[in-house]
Structures are given as structure tokens and as C-alpha cells.
Write a structure and sequence with these properties.
alpha/beta; Rossmann fold; 8 helices; 32% helix
């Protein structure tokens, strides 16, 4: 089953809206500014910094898809891009809309993506992606050989649907973390979780923390610290409400009103995906 780009019932835009710039990837256009009748010319930067390290760059594939949560993708991409060969992959290289309305395009198709990867990465967003058999088969295939299999936010749910988290500890966005056991994974409440070669990040902004942890694994702490400094990543949020426990009952009740029946829809969707997980697990084995 292929997901429909117009499908929006479970789009994370109803959950979180993030705006960011993916170095050399995001086009900085909204869907309203872009149409099939308006040709888009990609203007590249005239200056490009050298890698932060000497030697071969790790090969990283980051999944892009309609309705992806933008910051899930561009947070770790900004950390990794200066030091890695980052492939933004999807079925085609057409323009597609992210959850916040920013339009992006892949740099590589799924078929063109390198067979042997150092890192396979899945961001969260439109949960119906886990019903897309072509995507799940791609993830199971590349994940069977990748040095690291990784995710941020709801991307761990998609990895689970592809059969890639059975027997592993993992995390996800707080609203979806309790769905991980359906896929044989053990949920852990943490910003970044590593279990052997599986590394998962929590919700949305945790992607930067995740990226730094992963970069340290790939190229050492010094390179990761240089990337952190280059990004001036020194968070000091104005409010201490970044987790359900810190937000408190009043804010959580308002969140529940805003989200509506989303959780009730997600649970049966995950259960159905878990039933089909075996076909993708066979690819790994």
C-alpha cells in the first residue's frame, strides 16, 4: 500500500509545527508558493565549508516522505551534513510538503540509495508511512546491513513496523512511546537511547541530541563537539514544560483537547502494522 500525499488525517501538522532550514536540502518554499505549473530553480550556496575530519565520510540515508516532521529530519541533518555523505531518500525526487508546509525534495530515490550504509535514519511525521510496503521493504533491506539503524520521534514506530526493533530498547515521542511494545521493542523514557547498533531519539528537538550522539559514535567526540559549537547548540528554554511530567496536568489536559482522537486512531494502526511485521523480518534474516 502506498501512502497518498494528500492524506492528512494523521499528519503531525496537527501535533507539532516546526520550521527549520536543511543545509542544501530544504528549498524554503511553502506549498502555497509552489505548484506543478511553477518551475523551481535550485540556487546553491557559493561557499561550502570543508569536512570537520579527514578520511572517508560515513554514508547516511535519511528517509523523506510527505508529511514528515521537518525538524525531526533537519535537526540531525544539520549535525551530520558537514561530516557525512547524507542521502535524503524517497521514491522520487518530486517536491513534497512537510508537516509545517515547507516544501522539500529528495536527493536520491530509494533505488539509487547505497546498498551498504553506515547509518539508516527514519524521522517521524505522517504515521500512515508504516502502511507503505515499498518503504518498509526498503528499510528492512538497508537496515539488515546498516552499521547503525536509527530514528527520531515517531520514526522508531516506523522502524518497528519494518521489523527492525524486535528485542531492542528504544524511545519515541512521549505520545507514541507506549506503542513500541507492539513491535517487540522495550520503551525507554530518555532523550536518546542506544541499544547495540540501534540509536533512537525522543520527540522532535531531541534530533539534535541524537545527531551529536551518533556523530560521536561515527567520528569521535571532538568532531561532535565541533558540530555542537558550530550550531551554537546551548539550549536554555524559556519554559520548563518539555515533558509530560514537567508540563503538569493543566497543560496536558489542554494538549489532550487539542490532539483529540489521534491516539485512538494510532493504536489500531500500530496493531495492524505489527501483525504484518513478520514479512519484513524475513528480509532481515
Amino acid at each position: 500500500m502506498d501512502i497518498d500525499q494528500t492524506e492528512a488525517n494523521l499528519s503531525r501538522r496537527h501535533f507539532v509545527s516546526a520550521a527549520a532550514t536543511a543545509s542544501g536540502v530544504a528549498l524554503g518554499l511553502t506549498a502555497e508558493q509552489t505548484s506543478a505549473n511553477t518551475p523551481t530553480k535550485l540556487q546553491k550556496s557559493k561557499t561550502q565549508l570543508p569536512p570537520m575530519h579527514k578520511g572517508k565520510k560515513p554514508e547516511v540515508a535519511m528517509l523523506l516522505y510527505p508529511g514528515v516532521t521537518l525538524l525531526d529530519l533537519v535537526g540531525p541533518q544539520a549535525v551530520l551534513a558537514p561530516s557525512c555523505n547524507v542521502h535524503i531518500v524517497w521514491k522520487n525526487t518530486d517536491l513534497l510538503e512537510t508537516d509545517s508546509g515547507i516544501v522539500m525534495k529528495a536527493t536520491s530515490t530509494l533505488e539509487e540509495c547505497p546498498k551498504n550504509l553506515d547509518v539508516l535514519f527514519v524521522p517521524g511525521g505522517e504515521f500512515s508511512i508504516m502502511q507503505d510496503e515499498g518503504v518498509l521493504r526498503f528499510l528492512a533491506d538497508r537496515g539488515s546491513r546498516a552499521r547503525y539503524v536509527t530514528s527520531v520521534c515517531g520514526g522508531s514506530i516506523v522502524l518497528g513496523a519494518a521489523g527492525l526493533l524486535q528485542g531492542y530498547e528504544a524511545t519515541s515521542h512521549w505520545s507514541a512511546r507506549d506503542k513500541l511494545p507492539l513491535f517487540g521493542a522495550t520503551p525507554v523514557e530518555a532523550r536518546v537511547v542506544r541499544d547495540r547498533n540501534r540509536i533512537s531519539g525522543g520527540g522532535v528537538t531531541a534530533g539534535i541530541d541524537f545527531g551529536l550522539v551518533l556523530l560521536a559514535e561515527l567520528l569521535g567526540e571532538d568532531v561532535a563537539k565541533m558540530s555542537q559549537l558550530a550550531l551554537e547548540y546551548d539550549p536554555a528554554p524559556p519554559f520548563d514544560a518539555g515533558t509530560p511530567a514537567k508540563a503538569g496536568p493543566e497543560i496536558m489536559n489542554k494538549m489532550a483537547e487539542w490532539l483529540g482522537p489521534m491516539g485512538d486512531v494510532l493504536t489500531p494502526m500500530c496493531a495492524a502494522a505489527a501483525e504484518n511485521m513478520g514479512k519484513y523480518t524475513r528480509i532481515i534474516n
